[in-house]
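Hey, sorry to bother you again with one of my protein questions. I've been puzzling over a protein and I'd love to understand its fold better. Take your time with it, there's no hurry, and the full record follows here:
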Amino acid sequence: MTVIPDDIVTFIIQHKVRATHREQYEQWLRNIGREAERYPGHLGTNVIRPLDAAGQYTIISRVLVAGIIVWLMVYVIMPRYTRAVADWLYR
C-alpha cells in the first residue's frame, strides 16, 4: 500500500512533567507506546525529552487517516492515559 502525506495525521502532545515524577512518566511513555503500536495504521512515535529543568516533553505520533484510528487516539486512548499522569504535570 502506498501512503501519501494526505493519508497521515500527526499528533503533537506536550507535557511539562514535575521532576519528582519523571521516572513514572517515562514508564507511562513506554506503556502508551506499546499500546499505540497495537493499532493498525500507527506509523510511529517520537519523544523529545527535556534538556533542562523545565521538564517539557514533546510526543509526536503519526497515524494513517482512518476514522476509527483517529477516533480512538483522540477520544479513547489519549484521554485515558493523560488522566493517568495528570498529577505529575504542572497546571
